[in-house]
Design brief:
By secondary structure, the protein is α/β, with parallel strands linked by helices. Helices cover 41% and strands 15% of the residues. It is globular, with a radius of gyration of 19 Å. The mean pLDDT is 97.
Length: 333
Amino acid sequence: MNEIYNNFIDAIGNTPLIKLNGPSEKTGCIIYGKAEFLNPGGSIKDRAAYAIIQDAEKRGEIRENGTVVEGTAGNTGIGLTLICNSKNYKSIIVMPETQTKEKIDTLKSIGADLHLVPAKPYKDPNNYVKFSERLAKALYKENNGNVIWANQFDNTANYLGHYKTTGQEIWKQTKGKIDGFICSSGTGGTIAGVGKALKEKNSNIKIFLSDPKGSALYNYIKNKELKIEGNSITEGIGSSRITANFINAPIDDAYSINDEVALKELYKLIENEGLCLGTSTGINVAGAIKLAKELGPGKTIVTILCDKSERYHSKLFNKEFLKQKKLPIPNWL
């Protein structure tokens, strides 16, 4: 079906489901990945970025020549900048300097006003999120308004955007034949929005969190305790706190997934299915396989294919880096 869009923004969302054949055969279930890497900005974060800007426009908080400020691990910054470019807004992005060179280069190349800051824990006043909030407040005063802090972690326009779009699309695409949904959480927007949408349609659908090591969310779901164990090379997922978006997620249970298992699944998808996807997708797919095994054969599971591997080449296909981290190396390297 040919679609004609009037602008970049119209192309956000309505991504297909792709059957993951290897994981499906392995478990006797049907496992689908929602192909969010096909959004025009290259990731699922286009949805959150658009939902936040749309909400600010409705409230009259931003108008022509306005400025959007955000602290991001990269993908939300890319989505925001591209949407801002298409709407004649300015984007100012604050990002930890530890993120991949590929994301940093992408942000610079699309014209974001990029501020790289040292990586600090959330409780530190110089954490990238808090830094971006201070910057937004200062600019708001200087400009007499027309400046917003996107605040993707605690701005609930994020999860409501996924509730209105991503969750409804999954229900429609599976014709309601879905037994489980699983994904990781960064801001909590996707799992909260999709989870709420699907539970409203059928409360028996299982909503599971797939959490990387180094995140406290797995222990929070299991034991109501924000306790961090291990670490991960993934970016943009995992958290040490409960965000205003995550608190809305109707989560039934959680898995803790290590990088070794996640990377093995990622490399298999590249080699056997032609799907070249980023690190958080590895966590999602490994979690989907666990959920399929738990629910038993014949079930339908959906997860999220967040972005492409090209944003993580310096990690995923860097032999020295992988050796140093004692992680699997794809056999073609």
